[in-house]
Write a structure and sequence with these properties.
Radius of gyration: 18 Å
Number of strands: 12
Shape: globular
Structural class: alpha/beta
Bound molecules: 2'-monophosphoadenosine-5'-diphosphate
Distance between the termini: 28 Å
Length: 261
C-alpha cells in the first residue's frame, strides 16, 4: 500500500483531485494513494485526527473547512497566514499551507499565457480570500474586490495594501482580468455585473470547474475570453504534491487529459 493522502471536505464526491494526484504519482513514480473523505460539518478535526492516527501522511482541505484547518495547524506558511486559510496539511508535522493562490497565478501565467494588470475579483468569501495575496504578488497593478455585501469586500481589501473594495453598481470597465470567486454559479446565478465589464480583451475566469456557470456564459456572449477553474485545481494540486513528496509533477499533460475527457 502506498503513502496515504486524501481530500477532506463536504461535499467531496465529485472532486477530480484523486484523478489528478494519481496521474502525478504515476508520472513521478511516487507510491501514493489519494482518496476522498467527506467529513461531517461538525467533525473536521476528528476526521483529520482519525486519518493521521491511521497512518495518513497529508490532506487537502476544501469547502467548508479551510479556515478551520488554518486554526488547527501547529505552524503555517506565510501565504496561508495571509489567506487565513489552509488547503494543504502535512500530518507528520502539523504544518499547513495554502496553494490556491499560487495555483491560480500559475494557471493564468503558464497555461493561459495571460499577463494581467487591472484585476477585478468578485466575491469576498473564503475563495476570494485565498487568492488576493498571490494576485498582488504576481504583479496586479490594481486589484478591486467587489461583493454584494460591500462591507465584507472592504474588510478583505483593508488587509492588503494595493487592494480596494467596491459594490457592483460602482464598477467601471477598466479591467483586463475578472475573476469570479463567488459561489453564485453553484446556485446557477451570476454576480450582478454592470454592462461593459465583460467585453472583448478581458479574461473572465471562474474559480469553479466542471460546469458552465452563468458567469462564463455571460462572458462568452460579451466577447470575453472565458475560462473555468480546472487549471487552477491542477496547479494547486501540483504545489501540494510537491510539498508532500518533494517532487514537482508536470501539470500540462494532466490538464490536457482532463480537458480532453
Ligand atoms: P466561498 O468559501 O466559496 O467563498 P463564502 O465564504 O460563503 O463561500 O462566500 C460566498 C461569496 O459568494 C460571498 O462573497 C457572497 O457574497 P455575500 O458576501 O454578499 O453573501 C458571494 N455570492 C454568493 N451568491 C451570490 C450571488 N448570487 N451573487 C453575488 N454574489 C454571491
Amino acid at each position: 500500500m502506498g503513502d496515504r493522502y486524501a481530500l477532506v471536505g463536504n461535499p467531496v464526491a465529485h472532486s477530480k483531485s484523486p484523478v489528478i494526484h494519481a496521474a502525478f504519482a504515476r508520472a513521478t513514480s511516487q507510491d501514493v494513494e489519494y482518496s476522498l473523505i467527506e467529513a461531517p460539518l461538525d467533525g473536521f478535526a476528528a476526521t483529520v485526527e482519525r486519518f493521521r492516527a491511521g497512518g495518513g501522511r497529508g490532506l487537502n482541505v476544501t469547502l467548508p473547512f479551510k479556515q478551520e484547518a488554518f486554526r488547527l495547524c501547529s505552524g503555517v506558511s506565510a501565504r496561508a497566514r495571509i489567506a487565513q486559510a489552509v488547503n494543504t496539511l502535512v500530518l507528520e508535522t502539523g504544518f499547513g499551507d495554502n496553494t490556491d493562490g499560487i495555483g491560480l497565478v500559475h494557471d493564468l501565467s503558464r497555461n493561459l499565457n495571460y499577463k494581467f494588470s487591472n484585476v477585478l475579483l468578485l466575491g469576498a468569501g473564503g475563495a476570494a480570500q485565498g487568492v488576493v495575496g498571490a494576485l498582488l504578488e504576481a504583479g496586479a497593478a490594481r486589484l478591486v474586490i467587489a461583493n454584494r455585501t460591500v462591507s465584507k469586500a472592504q474588510a478583505l481589501a483593508a488587509r492588503f495594501p494595493g487592494a480596494s473594495a467596491c459594490d457592483y453598481d460602482g464598477l467601471e470597465a477598466q479591467f483586463d482580468l475578472v475573476i469570479n470567486a463567488t459561489s453564485a454559479g453553484l446556485a446557477d446565478e451570476a454576480p450582478p455585473l454592470p454592462p461593459g465589464i465583460l467585453r472583448s480583451g478581458v479574461l473572465a475566469y471562474d474559480m469553479v470547474y466542471g460546469r458552465e456557470t452563468p458567469f462564463l456564459t455571460a462572458a462568452r456572449r460579451a466577447g470575453a475570453r472565458a475560462c473555468d477553474g480546472l487549471g487552477m485545481l491542477v496547479e494547486q494540486a501540483a504545489e501540494s504534491f510537491f510539498l508532500w513528496r518533494g517532487v514537482r509533477p508536470q501539470t500540462r499533460p494532466v490538464l490536457e487529459k482532463l480537458r480532453g475527457a
